[in-house]
Amino acid sequence: MKTHSQRLLPGDDLYFELLTLAKEWPAAFLLSCVGSLKVLSLRLAGAEQEKILQGPFEILSLSGTCCLSGLHLHICVADKEGRVFGGHLKPGSIIETTAEIVVGILDDTCFTREADDETGYLELVVKKASQASS
Questions:
Q1: What's the maximum distance between 2 C-alpha atoms anywhere in the chain?
Q2: Backbone angles phi, psi at 21, to 5 degrees
Q3: What is the CA radius of gyration of the chain?
Q4: Which residue, 129, 33, 130, 133, is CA-closest to 89?
């Protein structure tokens, strides 16, 4: 496994920055992310629409998988009163001061997202890198 560490900057869209980076990673996952958001866009469990919330928020955790065909990320944040909530990270989540990310990149693995008839979503498919072209 290799790692990638980077600081994302104020005004960056956390989701789109990770999506751009993921275009270089056949199979990656978030090891760590701390920082703050001034706007949070997320999809709550069972919801069909995104919810957009105005911060500030502290990023407590960000976890999930990244690959050439997309992201599946869950975020947990705290507001200025210490209330904690989270859901699926969506585009439009704007960094306030920083987002320090550490990503693990798997050497011999390829992730893809493929339609799953049972769930109705694009779901993770894991292959060895040598199987990815077959």
A1: 52
A2: -65, -35
A3: 15
A4: 33
pLDDT, tens digit (0-9, with 9 covering 90-100), for 11-48: 999 999 999 999 999 999 999 999 999 999 999 988 88
Q: Locate all alpha helices (DSSP H) within 1-134, ordered by sequence.
A: 14-22
- Nearest-angstrom CA–CA distance, 134 and 115: 18
DSSP state of 21: H
Neighbours of 7 (CB within 10 A): 11
CB 70 within 8 A of CB 17: no
- Residue 109 contacts residue 128 (beta carbons within 8 Å): yes
**Separation CA 114–CA 96 (nearest Å):** 33
